[in-house]
Amino acid sequence: MFLFKKPKFIFLLLFIISNIYSCLYFINTGHLLGEVSDFNFKSEETSIYINLLIIFFYLFFLVVIFRFFSKIHVNSLLDNDCRIKWCKAEFFWGKLLIIIQILFIFYFCLTNTFGANSVNRDGGIISALWVVLSPDNLFFIYYSIFRKSRYAKYNLLLAILSNILRGWSGILIFIVFIELCYRYREGKLKIRLLSKICGIMFLLYPVILAVKYGIRDSFLTNSNFGESFDRSWLYVFNNNGVLGYINGLLFGIEQFFSRIQLFSNAVVVYSLKHELANFVITNKVTSYWQEGIYGIIWNRIFDLPTSYNLGEVLANFIDPQSIIGSWNSNPTFLSWLFIDPFQIGIYLLFTIALCFITMFLVKKITSSTLSLDMLWYMWLILIMPGWFASLILFLNTLIIFYVITFIKLNVTIER
């Protein structure tokens, strides 16, 4: 029973169960879940091996590697024992992040960019600045450090508003996770409270989906939100009254598990491994180590041709009618094991190195245990789905957060 009060255990169990369910669903029906449901795959034996690999790497990174690296001792910039530094940084970041988030909301509303399921950007310097600065990542870091700050609730509301306006609902899962971790560490997390939170999320999830789909549709079609919301409401609930709501609940459960499972996408990548390998050989797909902001800088310095990341190419296989690069699909961590098996050792070392650097930076910034919970969550949603560009962007945001905090504290101290 004690384990079921640990938020990290609950979330990891949910993600593993979703993959087991997806695998069993495939074995029983012959169909995959999610956006790759139209793909045909016949080998049940291979699918079982793929699922076992997924479970293994979940445990490897989020249990073994995380526990090992979390034991590393680092002198932190923001330590609970030094309240003067803590209060100065808390006040500074609380106000600065409010300004950043408000400006970002105005920007993407005016330019109709940064919408969910889209890589649409205006290509200008300001757009690039928002990518590098990453207000979402700044909020994740800030909230996990200064959860008790008087400015935290304002930044929380702005972060929710920003994500909802862009058609993202994942921020709500992050908040639930962090709040559960906070209460667990404070000794306030009870089974009854946990059950209530899960129940409320379950009952509200279909409504959240309808709102999210409505916003995404209005982004993509440039249509009125009211019309888009009506279409998405009918899509989710499929009826009126109690029966429609029950349909919405069932749809929500299916959608949730199909979104967090990786099995289906991993199977598709495995079936396309030769085609994707040819894309890599011909430099049409960026290698994993070149993904993200530093890969872009590398290509610019050495005047290398621009290529698409693996997620964008996979999305084009899923929907050949779409414009390549207009959206992406998670390739999963296993993708490069299938595409280039001769580099498994280098690939694992690269990923473990990213884990170490992010752990080191978080510990260098703060001694807050809630920040380690935040980092664990980022590993969960970025490493296993294969979002290396996002993980590297998160790493970059950690560097920015540390540098700005270091400069601010030292300038203040000198004054």
Automatic annotation (TrEMBL):
Transmembrane segments: 9-28, 48-70, 91-113, 125-145, 157-178, 193-211, 232-253, 344-362, 374-407
Superkingdom: Bacteria
UniProt entry keywords in alphabetical sequence: Membrane, Transmembrane, Transmembrane helix
Annotated signal peptide: none
Name of the protein in its database record: O-antigen polymerase
Species of provenance: Escherichia coli M605
